[in-house]
Every structure is written in structure tokens, then in C-alpha cells.
Write a structure and sequence with these properties.
Helix content: 40-55%
Structural class: mainly alpha
Shape: globular
Radius of gyration: 18 Å
Number of strands: 6
Strand order of the largest sheet: 1-2
């Protein structure tokens, strides 16, 4: 599987990594990294949220729906503007559901979600906590017009999302602009 299809787990939170399952979202050729139920299961495994029950095509549709409900709310939060009420309502429907129980083995662990819907609910709750709490101040958006990926940057020093392609394109463009000015 090519690098373009590889999952990204470097955005700073599970819900931000869910946003990254669709690359170059605003470009002419977006990259869907989670096109199948199998890929959704792989992603849920990687974020330790694989449900007990089998994941279905309807669950994949719900995962896409959550991702695309989160994106505009996150971008509005970073831009410091109120999100559209319809977007908030779309996100809100994921917040109902099971509660998380914890157990102790050799470490503190949460019980696996019963269904993919429950897993998506946990992700939605994490996102809402992040978007409404003090950590929202650490959210940044990649300036690349085709990316606009949201990521957490507690250091305040990142200019681009964790995708190396965005930083490379941005640096090359800046270098060419400086070179053109000096000529």
C-alpha cells in the first residue's frame, strides 16, 4: 500500500487522526484512506477501538459521516468563528450511546466498544472535549489550500500539518518566492 494510503496517527488525538483518513480533502483528487469496511476495522484496531460486534458497510458510512461532521466544526473552532448549527447537530447525534467502563489489568484499560457506533461515539466525545476545552487553543490548520488538515500543536511552532508533503510544498513555494524577489 502506498504512502498516500497509509493511515496517519500523528495529528495529536484520535479524532484528529480520523480527519486525516481523508487526505488532500480540499484538492482535486482527495485520498480516501478508509474506503472499505476492512480499512475501517484496521483503523479502529490501530486506535484501540475495535468493537466486539462485526463492522458493517453502514458503520463505514457512519464513520465517514462523523469525520465530515467534525471537519467544519474543527475548522470553525480554529478560525475562531461559531460553527454552523446544522454541523453541530450532525456531530451531536454521535454523542448518545454507551458509557465507557474501565478495568485494571497490568494497566488501566477501557472495555472495547460493543459496536462501531459506540466506538464513533467515543471519538465524538473526545472531539467535543477537545473543541470545547482549553486544548482547543493548540489546534492549528495546515495552510496548504488542498489540505487544511487540523492538528494539535502544543508547541505553537508548526506551520504545516504533520504530512511531510505539505511542509515540502510550502517550503519550496516560499523559497521560489524569495528567489523571485531577489532577482
Amino acid at each position: 500500500m502506498g504512502d498516500r494510503m497509509a493511515f496517519r496517527f500523528d495529528s495529536g488525538a484520535t479524532w484528529l487522526n480520523l480527519l486525516a483518513t481523508r487526505g488532500t480533502h480540499f484538492g482535486e483528487h482527495p485520498v480516501e484512506r478508509m474506503p472499505t469496511v476492512g480499512r475501517l476495522v484496521e483503523w479502529l484496531d490501530a486506535v484501540e477501538l475495535r468493537p466486539v460486534r462485526k463492522v458493517s458497510a453502514a458503520d463505514l458510512e457512519l464513520a465517514w459521516e462523523l469525520r465530515e461532521a467534525l471537519r467544519p466544526v474543527a475548522l470553525a473552532t480554529v478560525d475562531g468563528v461559531p460553527p454552523d448549527s446544522a454541523q453541530v447537530k450532525a456531530l451531536g447525534r454521535f454523542l448518545d450511546g454507551e458509557s465507557v467502563s474501565l478495568k485494571v489489568t497490568d494497566r488501566l484499560v477501557r472495555t472495547p466498544p460493543a459496536t462501531a457506533t459506540d466506538a464513533l461515539g467515543r471519538i465524538a466525545r473526545q472531539a467535543v472535549d477537545h473543541l470545547t476545552g482549553p486544548e482547543r487553543e493548540f489546534l492549528s490548520v495546515c495552510p496548504e489550500h488542498d489540505c487544511r488538515g487540523v492538528f494539535s500543536d502544543p508547541s505553537g511552532r508548526r506551520r504545516w500539518c504533520p504530512n511531510p508533503a505539505c511542509a515540502t510544498r510550502g517550503r519550496v513555494r516560499a523559497h521560489r518566492a524569495r528567489k523571485a524577489q531577489s532577482e
